[in-house]
Amino acid sequence: MPPHEGLVHPKEYDWRDSNVELIGTDLDHRVKYQSAATEPAWNNGVIGIESGLYIWRIEDFEVVPWPKEKYGSFHEGDSYIVLLSEKVQSTNSDVDQDQNSREEKEKLVHDIFFWLGSHTSQDEAGTAAYKTVELDEYLHGTAIQHRELQSSPSENFSALFPRLKILRGGVATGFNHVDINEEAPHTDTLLRVFKHPSAAAGRDGVLVHEVEPTWHSLDEEDVFVLDKGDKIFVWQGSKCSPMEKMRAAQVVNDITQAKHVDVEVLAQAEFRSKVFVDYLGGEDLDYSSTTFTCPRPIASTSTSSNPSRPKMLWKLSDASGDLTFTLIKKGSGISKADLDPNDVFLLDAGRGIWVWEGRGASKAEKAMWLRVTQMYVRQHEEAASLSVAKVVQGCEGRFFWTAVGA
Protein backbone atom coordinates (compact mmCIF):
# COMPACT_ATOMS: atom_id res chain seq x y z
CA MET A 1 0.00 0.00 0.00
CA PRO A 2 1.36 3.46 -0.84
CA PRO A 3 2.31 5.35 2.33
CA HIS A 4 -0.30 8.06 1.84
CA GLU A 5 -3.27 5.66 1.74
CA GLY A 6 -5.41 4.84 4.76
CA LEU A 7 -4.25 7.83 6.79
CA VAL A 8 -6.09 10.80 8.20
CA HIS A 9 -7.93 12.18 5.17
CA PRO A 10 -10.46 9.55 3.99
CA LYS A 11 -12.51 10.63 0.98
CA GLU A 12 -16.22 11.23 1.36
CA TYR A 13 -18.07 8.07 0.33
CA ASP A 14 -20.97 8.13 -2.12
CA TRP A 15 -22.89 4.86 -2.07
CA ARG A 16 -24.19 5.53 -5.60
CA ASP A 17 -20.65 4.92 -6.90
CA SER A 18 -20.26 1.55 -5.15
CA ASN A 19 -20.89 -1.97 -6.33
CA VAL A 20 -24.18 -2.25 -4.42
CA GLU A 21 -25.95 -1.62 -7.71
CA LEU A 22 -25.05 -5.15 -8.78
CA ILE A 23 -26.39 -6.82 -5.66
CA GLY A 24 -29.44 -9.02 -6.23
CA THR A 25 -29.29 -9.16 -10.02
CA ASP A 26 -26.78 -11.86 -10.99
CA LEU A 27 -26.70 -14.17 -7.98
CA ASP A 28 -28.98 -17.14 -7.76
CA HIS A 29 -31.11 -17.43 -4.61
CA ARG A 30 -29.95 -20.97 -3.94
CA VAL A 31 -26.30 -19.96 -4.02
CA LYS A 32 -26.95 -17.05 -1.68
CA TYR A 33 -28.83 -19.22 0.79
CA GLN A 34 -26.07 -21.81 0.81
CA SER A 35 -23.59 -19.02 1.50
CA ALA A 36 -25.81 -17.65 4.28
CA ALA A 37 -26.06 -21.09 5.87
CA THR A 38 -22.28 -21.11 6.36
CA GLU A 39 -22.07 -17.61 7.90
CA PRO A 40 -21.30 -17.92 11.65
CA ALA A 41 -22.91 -14.54 12.37
CA TRP A 42 -26.36 -15.86 11.40
CA ASN A 43 -25.98 -19.45 12.61
CA ASN A 44 -25.95 -18.90 16.36
CA GLY A 45 -29.27 -20.50 17.26
CA VAL A 46 -30.86 -17.08 17.82
CA ILE A 47 -31.12 -15.22 14.49
CA GLY A 48 -34.50 -15.82 12.87
CA ILE A 49 -35.81 -17.52 15.99
CA GLU A 50 -35.81 -14.98 18.81
CA SER A 51 -36.87 -11.34 18.82
CA GLY A 52 -34.28 -8.71 19.62
CA LEU A 53 -31.78 -6.18 18.28
CA TYR A 54 -28.51 -7.45 16.76
CA ILE A 55 -25.58 -5.48 15.29
CA TRP A 56 -22.50 -6.51 13.30
CA ARG A 57 -19.59 -4.48 11.88
CA ILE A 58 -17.83 -5.29 8.61
CA GLU A 59 -14.14 -5.97 9.31
CA ASP A 60 -11.87 -7.19 6.49
CA PHE A 61 -14.88 -8.59 4.58
CA GLU A 62 -16.05 -10.45 7.70
CA VAL A 63 -19.28 -9.95 9.67
CA VAL A 64 -18.17 -9.37 13.27
CA PRO A 65 -20.63 -9.06 16.20
CA TRP A 66 -20.65 -5.55 17.68
CA PRO A 67 -20.38 -5.55 21.51
CA LYS A 68 -23.75 -4.93 23.16
CA GLU A 69 -22.24 -2.25 25.39
CA LYS A 70 -21.47 -0.29 22.20
CA TYR A 71 -24.97 -0.54 20.72
CA GLY A 72 -25.92 2.93 19.50
CA SER A 73 -22.32 3.94 18.74
CA PHE A 74 -21.17 3.88 15.11
CA HIS A 75 -17.87 4.92 13.52
CA GLU A 76 -17.98 7.09 10.41
CA GLY A 77 -15.23 5.00 8.77
CA ASP A 78 -17.20 1.73 8.98
CA SER A 79 -20.23 -0.15 7.65
CA TYR A 80 -22.66 -2.01 9.91
CA ILE A 81 -25.58 -4.41 9.67
CA VAL A 82 -28.42 -3.99 12.17
CA LEU A 83 -31.20 -6.58 12.55
CA LEU A 84 -34.42 -5.82 14.42
CA SER A 85 -36.66 -8.87 14.94
CA GLU A 86 -40.07 -8.28 16.50
CA LYS A 87 -43.06 -10.49 17.22
CA VAL A 88 -46.22 -8.86 15.91
CA GLN A 89 -49.89 -9.73 15.65
CA SER A 90 -50.94 -9.69 12.03
CA THR A 91 -53.29 -11.23 9.51
CA ASN A 92 -52.26 -13.71 6.86
CA SER A 93 -52.46 -10.91 4.32
CA ASP A 94 -52.31 -7.15 4.65
CA VAL A 95 -53.40 -6.24 1.13
CA ASP A 96 -55.49 -9.18 -0.15
CA GLN A 97 -58.95 -8.07 -1.10
CA ASP A 98 -60.66 -11.21 0.25
CA GLN A 99 -61.43 -10.15 3.80
CA ASN A 100 -62.75 -13.65 4.66
CA SER A 101 -59.23 -15.07 4.21
CA ARG A 102 -57.82 -13.02 7.06
CA GLU A 103 -56.59 -14.94 10.09
CA GLU A 104 -55.03 -13.40 13.19
CA LYS A 105 -51.65 -14.89 14.11
CA GLU A 106 -48.31 -13.99 15.66
CA LYS A 107 -45.20 -13.89 13.50
CA LEU A 108 -41.61 -12.67 13.63
CA VAL A 109 -41.04 -9.59 11.47
CA HIS A 110 -37.48 -8.57 10.54
CA ASP A 111 -36.00 -5.18 9.62
CA ILE A 112 -32.41 -5.23 8.34
CA PHE A 113 -30.56 -1.90 8.22
CA PHE A 114 -27.17 -1.67 6.57
CA TRP A 115 -25.56 1.57 7.75
CA LEU A 116 -22.81 3.22 5.72
CA GLY A 117 -20.48 5.69 7.42
CA SER A 118 -19.52 8.75 5.39
CA HIS A 119 -15.90 7.56 5.22
CA THR A 120 -16.44 3.82 4.87
CA SER A 121 -14.62 2.09 2.03
CA GLN A 122 -16.38 0.81 -1.07
CA ASP A 123 -15.29 -2.72 -0.15
CA GLU A 124 -16.92 -2.42 3.27
CA ALA A 125 -20.09 -0.90 1.81
CA GLY A 126 -20.29 -3.59 -0.85
CA THR A 127 -19.78 -6.33 1.73
CA ALA A 128 -22.48 -4.85 3.98
CA ALA A 129 -24.90 -4.72 1.04
CA TYR A 130 -24.15 -8.28 -0.05
CA LYS A 131 -24.35 -9.65 3.49
CA THR A 132 -27.67 -7.84 3.99
CA VAL A 133 -29.08 -9.69 0.97
CA GLU A 134 -27.55 -12.90 2.34
CA LEU A 135 -29.15 -12.38 5.75
CA ASP A 136 -32.48 -11.77 4.04
CA GLU A 137 -32.02 -15.08 2.19
CA TYR A 138 -31.30 -16.78 5.51
CA LEU A 139 -34.59 -15.34 6.82
CA HIS A 140 -36.33 -16.79 3.71
CA GLY A 141 -36.76 -13.44 2.00
CA THR A 142 -39.15 -12.05 4.60
CA ALA A 143 -37.01 -9.19 5.95
CA ILE A 144 -37.45 -5.49 5.21
CA GLN A 145 -34.13 -4.16 3.92
CA HIS A 146 -33.11 -0.57 4.72
CA ARG A 147 -30.12 1.30 3.30
CA GLU A 148 -29.01 3.96 5.81
CA LEU A 149 -26.54 6.79 5.21
CA GLN A 150 -24.70 8.48 8.06
CA SER A 151 -25.43 11.90 6.59
CA SER A 152 -29.20 11.37 6.63
CA PRO A 153 -30.38 8.62 9.00
CA SER A 154 -34.06 7.78 8.80
CA GLU A 155 -36.29 8.45 11.76
CA ASN A 156 -36.97 4.70 11.95
CA PHE A 157 -33.26 3.98 12.41
CA SER A 158 -32.72 6.81 14.88
CA ALA A 159 -35.68 5.60 16.95
CA LEU A 160 -33.87 2.31 17.58
CA PHE A 161 -31.11 4.09 19.50
CA PRO A 162 -32.17 6.61 22.16
CA ARG A 163 -28.45 7.40 22.60
CA LEU A 164 -27.25 7.38 19.00
CA LYS A 165 -23.61 8.43 18.80
CA ILE A 166 -21.43 8.88 15.70
CA LEU A 167 -17.67 8.62 16.33
CA ARG A 168 -14.70 9.43 14.16
CA GLY A 169 -12.33 6.75 12.88
CA GLY A 170 -13.00 3.17 11.94
CA VAL A 171 -11.57 -0.29 11.65
CA ALA A 172 -9.68 0.37 8.40
CA THR A 173 -8.52 3.96 8.97
CA GLY A 174 -5.28 5.32 10.32
CA PHE A 175 -7.00 7.26 13.10
CA ASN A 176 -9.03 4.61 14.92
CA HIS A 177 -11.14 5.98 17.74
CA VAL A 178 -9.87 4.92 21.16
CA ASP A 179 -12.43 4.08 23.83
CA ILE A 180 -12.16 6.19 26.95
CA ASN A 181 -11.42 3.19 29.17
CA GLU A 182 -8.46 1.98 27.09
CA GLU A 183 -4.93 2.79 28.17
CA ALA A 184 -3.58 4.96 25.37
CA PRO A 185 -2.26 8.50 24.91
CA HIS A 186 -5.19 10.88 25.25
CA THR A 187 -6.35 13.07 22.39
CA ASP A 188 -8.98 15.74 22.91
CA THR A 189 -12.46 14.63 21.89
CA LEU A 190 -15.23 17.07 20.96
CA LEU A 191 -18.82 15.80 20.82
CA ARG A 192 -21.65 17.81 19.28
CA VAL A 193 -25.10 17.26 20.81
CA PHE A 194 -27.99 18.38 18.63
CA LYS A 195 -31.59 17.65 17.75
CA HIS A 196 -32.15 15.36 14.78
CA PRO A 197 -33.21 17.79 12.01
CA SER A 198 -35.94 15.39 10.83
CA ALA A 199 -37.18 14.08 14.15
CA ALA A 200 -40.41 15.05 15.79
CA ALA A 201 -40.12 16.57 19.24
CA GLY A 202 -39.25 13.92 21.79
CA ARG A 203 -36.48 12.47 23.89
CA ASP A 204 -35.22 10.20 21.09
CA GLY A 205 -34.61 13.07 18.68
CA VAL A 206 -31.19 14.20 19.97
CA LEU A 207 -27.97 12.87 18.41
CA VAL A 208 -24.33 12.89 19.46
CA HIS A 209 -21.70 13.33 16.74
CA GLU A 210 -17.94 13.49 17.22
CA VAL A 211 -16.52 16.50 15.36
CA GLU A 212 -13.13 18.08 14.70
CA PRO A 213 -11.80 19.49 18.02
CA THR A 214 -11.59 23.10 16.84
CA TRP A 215 -13.62 26.22 17.61
CA HIS A 216 -14.78 26.21 13.97
CA SER A 217 -16.98 23.20 14.88
CA LEU A 218 -19.01 25.23 17.41
CA ASP A 219 -22.57 26.34 16.83
CA GLU A 220 -24.69 28.48 19.16
CA GLU A 221 -27.77 26.30 18.65
CA ASP A 222 -26.16 23.15 20.10
CA VAL A 223 -24.29 21.79 23.12
CA PHE A 224 -20.68 20.56 22.95
CA VAL A 225 -18.77 18.22 25.26
CA LEU A 226 -14.97 18.50 25.32
CA ASP A 227 -13.10 15.59 26.89
CA LYS A 228 -9.54 16.68 27.68
CA GLY A 229 -8.65 13.52 29.55
CA ASP A 230 -8.17 15.06 32.98
CA LYS A 231 -11.29 17.24 32.81
CA ILE A 232 -14.56 17.48 30.88
CA PHE A 233 -16.06 20.78 29.74
CA VAL A 234 -19.65 21.29 28.56
CA TRP A 235 -20.35 24.36 26.41
CA GLN A 236 -24.01 25.31 26.09
CA GLY A 237 -24.68 27.46 23.06
CA SER A 238 -26.86 30.49 23.67
CA LYS A 239 -29.65 29.05 21.49
CA CYS A 240 -29.47 25.38 22.54
CA SER A 241 -32.58 23.51 23.70
CA PRO A 242 -33.32 21.89 27.10
CA MET A 243 -33.36 18.47 25.40
CA GLU A 244 -29.83 19.02 24.13
CA LYS A 245 -28.65 20.03 27.61
CA MET A 246 -30.24 16.90 29.06
CA ARG A 247 -28.65 14.64 26.43
CA ALA A 248 -25.24 16.24 27.04
CA ALA A 249 -25.62 15.47 30.74
CA GLN A 250 -26.20 11.80 29.82
CA VAL A 251 -23.07 11.82 27.67
CA VAL A 252 -21.01 13.24 30.52
CA ASN A 253 -22.46 10.66 32.90
CA ASP A 254 -21.44 7.86 30.52
CA ILE A 255 -17.88 9.20 30.38
CA THR A 256 -17.51 9.73 34.13
CA GLN A 257 -18.72 6.21 34.86
CA ALA A 258 -15.62 4.94 33.06
CA LYS A 259 -13.18 7.44 34.55
CA HIS A 260 -13.43 9.86 37.46
CA VAL A 261 -12.69 13.39 36.30
CA ASP A 262 -13.95 16.89 37.07
CA VAL A 263 -16.76 18.33 34.98
CA GLU A 264 -17.46 22.01 34.33
CA VAL A 265 -20.61 23.23 32.59
CA LEU A 266 -20.36 26.63 30.90
CA ALA A 267 -23.14 28.67 29.30
CA GLN A 268 -22.01 30.68 26.29
CA ALA A 269 -23.12 33.91 27.95
CA GLU A 270 -20.77 33.35 30.89
CA PHE A 271 -17.43 35.15 30.74
CA ARG A 272 -15.53 32.03 31.79
CA SER A 273 -16.90 30.07 28.81
CA LYS A 274 -14.10 31.69 26.77
CA VAL A 275 -11.79 29.02 28.25
CA PHE A 276 -13.69 26.38 26.26
CA VAL A 277 -12.97 28.20 22.98
CA ASP A 278 -9.35 28.77 24.01
CA TYR A 279 -8.82 25.04 24.39
CA LEU A 280 -10.10 24.65 20.81
CA GLY A 281 -7.59 27.09 19.34
CA GLY A 282 -9.63 30.28 19.61
CA GLU A 283 -7.35 32.21 21.97
CA ASP A 284 -7.18 35.23 19.66
CA LEU A 285 -10.92 35.48 19.03
CA ASP A 286 -12.97 38.46 20.17
CA TYR A 287 -15.31 36.13 22.03
CA SER A 288 -18.01 38.69 22.84
CA SER A 289 -18.55 39.63 19.19
CA THR A 290 -18.03 36.24 17.50
CA THR A 291 -21.03 34.37 16.12
CA PHE A 292 -20.53 30.61 16.16
CA THR A 293 -22.18 28.71 13.30
CA CYS A 294 -21.33 25.36 11.72
CA PRO A 295 -23.49 23.17 9.45
CA ARG A 296 -24.80 20.10 11.21
CA PRO A 297 -23.29 16.80 10.06
CA ILE A 298 -26.77 15.29 9.59
CA ALA A 299 -28.93 16.46 6.70
CA SER A 300 -32.64 16.98 7.09
CA THR A 301 -34.90 14.61 5.16
CA SER A 302 -38.12 16.09 6.46
CA THR A 303 -40.87 16.76 3.95
CA SER A 304 -41.41 20.07 5.72
CA SER A 305 -38.10 21.27 4.25
CA ASN A 306 -39.64 20.92 0.79
CA PRO A 307 -43.41 21.18 1.25
CA SER A 308 -44.03 21.37 -2.50
CA ARG A 309 -42.66 17.85 -3.08
CA PRO A 310 -45.52 15.31 -2.84
CA LYS A 311 -45.43 11.56 -2.33
CA MET A 312 -45.13 9.51 -5.52
CA LEU A 313 -46.00 5.88 -6.23
CA TRP A 314 -44.33 4.17 -9.21
CA LYS A 315 -45.00 0.71 -10.67
CA LEU A 316 -42.43 -1.70 -12.12
CA SER A 317 -44.28 -4.18 -14.32
CA ASP A 318 -43.75 -6.47 -17.31
CA ALA A 319 -47.47 -7.26 -17.74
CA SER A 320 -47.41 -5.70 -21.22
CA GLY A 321 -44.50 -7.89 -22.35
CA ASP A 322 -41.94 -5.15 -21.78
CA LEU A 323 -40.56 -4.05 -18.41
CA THR A 324 -41.97 -0.58 -17.68
CA PHE A 325 -41.60 1.88 -14.80
CA THR A 326 -44.51 4.30 -14.62
CA LEU A 327 -45.93 6.85 -12.19
CA ILE A 328 -49.23 5.54 -10.78
CA LYS A 329 -50.28 8.17 -8.27
CA LYS A 330 -49.00 11.44 -6.87
CA GLY A 331 -50.03 13.28 -3.72
CA SER A 332 -51.84 12.37 -0.53
CA GLY A 333 -54.32 9.87 -1.99
CA ILE A 334 -51.96 6.87 -2.05
CA SER A 335 -53.34 3.82 -0.19
CA LYS A 336 -53.08 0.03 0.17
CA ALA A 337 -55.56 -0.41 -2.65
CA ASP A 338 -53.01 0.97 -5.13
CA LEU A 339 -50.64 -1.97 -4.54
CA ASP A 340 -51.07 -4.83 -7.02
CA PRO A 341 -49.71 -8.20 -5.76
CA ASN A 342 -48.55 -9.01 -9.31
CA ASP A 343 -46.07 -6.13 -9.56
CA VAL A 344 -43.28 -4.23 -7.78
CA PHE A 345 -43.85 -0.65 -6.58
CA LEU A 346 -41.55 2.19 -5.57
CA LEU A 347 -42.95 4.65 -3.03
CA ASP A 348 -41.12 7.96 -2.70
CA ALA A 349 -42.54 9.06 0.64
CA GLY A 350 -40.50 12.25 0.90
CA ARG A 351 -38.66 11.12 4.03
CA GLY A 352 -37.54 7.85 2.46
CA ILE A 353 -37.92 5.48 -0.47
CA TRP A 354 -39.74 2.16 -0.16
CA VAL A 355 -39.82 -0.73 -2.64
CA TRP A 356 -42.81 -3.07 -2.23
CA GLU A 357 -42.64 -6.50 -3.86
CA GLY A 358 -45.94 -8.28 -4.52
CA ARG A 359 -46.09 -12.05 -4.02
CA GLY A 360 -47.06 -12.57 -7.65
CA ALA A 361 -44.35 -10.31 -9.13
CA SER A 362 -42.38 -11.86 -11.98
CA LYS A 363 -38.74 -12.93 -11.74
CA ALA A 364 -37.74 -10.00 -13.96
CA GLU A 365 -39.54 -7.48 -11.76
CA LYS A 366 -37.99 -8.93 -8.59
CA ALA A 367 -34.52 -8.97 -10.14
CA MET A 368 -34.65 -5.37 -11.36
CA TRP A 369 -35.90 -3.51 -8.31
CA LEU A 370 -32.46 -2.41 -7.09
CA ARG A 371 -31.26 -1.19 -10.49
CA VAL A 372 -34.50 0.72 -10.99
CA THR A 373 -34.15 2.29 -7.55
CA GLN A 374 -30.59 3.36 -8.34
CA MET A 375 -31.78 4.87 -11.61
CA TYR A 376 -34.59 6.71 -9.80
CA VAL A 377 -32.20 8.23 -7.26
CA ARG A 378 -29.84 9.41 -10.02
CA GLN A 379 -32.69 11.09 -11.89
CA HIS A 380 -34.24 12.69 -8.78
CA GLU A 381 -31.42 14.54 -7.06
CA GLU A 382 -33.66 15.57 -4.17
CA ALA A 383 -33.97 11.85 -3.28
CA ALA A 384 -30.21 11.17 -3.30
CA SER A 385 -29.84 11.44 0.48
CA LEU A 386 -32.95 9.42 1.38
CA SER A 387 -32.82 6.00 2.98
CA VAL A 388 -34.04 3.09 0.84
CA ALA A 389 -36.04 0.11 2.15
CA LYS A 390 -37.42 -3.00 0.44
CA VAL A 391 -40.38 -4.97 1.77
CA VAL A 392 -42.16 -8.14 0.60
CA GLN A 393 -45.95 -8.38 0.60
CA GLY A 394 -47.23 -9.78 3.88
CA CYS A 395 -44.12 -8.72 5.84
CA GLU A 396 -44.61 -4.94 5.71
CA GLY A 397 -44.52 -3.97 9.37
CA ARG A 398 -45.47 -0.63 10.93
CA PHE A 399 -42.74 1.49 9.31
CA PHE A 400 -44.00 0.80 5.80
CA TRP A 401 -47.70 1.40 6.47
CA THR A 402 -46.83 4.64 8.23
CA ALA A 403 -44.97 5.76 5.08
CA VAL A 404 -47.94 4.84 2.90
CA GLY A 405 -50.22 6.73 5.22
CA ALA A 406 -52.56 3.79 5.67
UniProtKB/TrEMBL annotation:
InterPro entries: ADF-H/Gelsolin-like_dom_sf, Gelsolin-like_dom, Gelsolin-like_dom_sf, Villin/Gelsolin. One of its GO terms (molecular function) is actin filament binding. Pfam families: Gelsolin (PF00626). One of its GO terms (biological process) is actin polymerization or depolymerization. CDD domains: gelsolin_S1_like. It comes from the Eukaryota. GO terms for cellular component: actin cytoskeleton; cytoplasm. This is Actin depolymerizing protein. Residues 62-157, 206-256, 335-368 form the Gelsolin-like domain. It comes from Pleomassaria siparia CBS 279.74.
